[in-house]
Design brief:
There is one protein chain. With about 240 residues, the chain is α+β, with helices and mostly antiparallel strands. It folds into two domains: about 1-100 and about 220-235, 4'-phosphopantetheinyl transferase domain (Ribosomal Protein L22, Chain A), CATH 3.90.470; about 115-215, 4'-phosphopantetheinyl transferase domain (Ribosomal Protein L22, Chain A, Alpha-Beta Complex). It contains eight helices and eleven strands. Strands 4-5-1-11 form a four-stranded mixed β-sheet, covered by helices on one side. A three-stranded antiparallel β-sheet has the order 6-10-9. The two termini are about 30 Å apart. The mean pLDDT is about 90.
Length: about 240
């Protein structure tokens, strides 16, 4: 089953990045420490911890057993266990980890995920619309410009952007490898339905962010979004 776990950092919360990194496998901690930007390093650490905790629970392994290999565009995969598919994302105060466990023999179907924090439309909408006009197709543009309010236009843009990003991360090509493909997302009666190539799409909204997940078309199950409270993720006492 495909489950997308997500955590939202509480407002005005100071996160001790060193403590979070210390909870990770040595393999992942090494990668996180290579992230130069301090804020992105903390977000990457939290997304990694979210994944490793849930993957350990799913596989019965210890976090210390995890080691990673990275694809051409930086997509991580587990060296052990090989049959688990996953993908991570973070934006602003939201981090997420998509995990696909195999339902039978063999490796789990591939998955990809992306999250984007919902910004103030007055600050970002104009730049979002410029991106949309340059890279999106007619149906995708119609989904955005058919909305009335600036907020709804912003969210509609992020639905398409996160969907396309999740798809690009599933394929391993990265967003710049697919950016020239228009109308990647398909629609059914005005609602986002999936992808043109048959890849499955699941979208979730929180008060702060839009989260999308993509799954290989051979997958025939649901996409479940599950919030993990920040205190539970970090083992903080409440």
């Amino acid at each position: 089953m495909l489950t997308v776990y997500y955590t939202e950092i509480p407002e005005n919360k100071t996160v001790d990045g060193e403590k979070i990194i210390a909870k990770l496998s040595l393999s992942r901690a090494s990668y996180v420490l290579s992230v130069a930007n301090p804020e992105r390093r903390i977000s990457s650490a939290l997304a990694s911890l979210l994944f490793e905790k849930k993957a350990a629970a799913a596989t019965g392994l210890s976090i210390s057993d995890f080691s990673y290999i990275y694809g051409e565009n930086g997509k991580p995969s587990l060296f052990c266990p090989k049959d688990l598919s996953f993908n991570l994302s973070h934006s602003g105060s939201t981090v997420c980890a998509a995990i696909m466990c195999p339902s039978g023999n063999g490796a789990a179907p591939l998955c990809g995920t992306d999250c984007e924090e919902i910004p103030d439309p007055g600050i970002k909408l104009e730049s979002f619309l410029k991106i949309a006009k340059k890279y999106f197709g007619g149906e995708e543009l119609g989904h955005i410009f058919g909305k009335v309010s600036d907020y709804d236009k912003t969210v509609a843009f992020l639905e398409i952007w996160t969907a396309r990003e999740a798809h690009a991360k599933l394929t391993g090509r990265g967003i710049f490898g697919e950016i020239g493909e228009k109308d990647t997302v398909t629609f059914d009666h005005g609602k986002i339905a999936g992808f043109r190539d048959g890849t499955l799409l699941f979208i979730h909204h929180t008060d702060k962010a839009v989260i999308s997940a993509a799954a290989e078309k051979l997958y025939n199950g649901p996409g479940v979004f599950s919030e993990v409270p920040f205190a539970l993720l970090t083992d903080e006492k409440t």
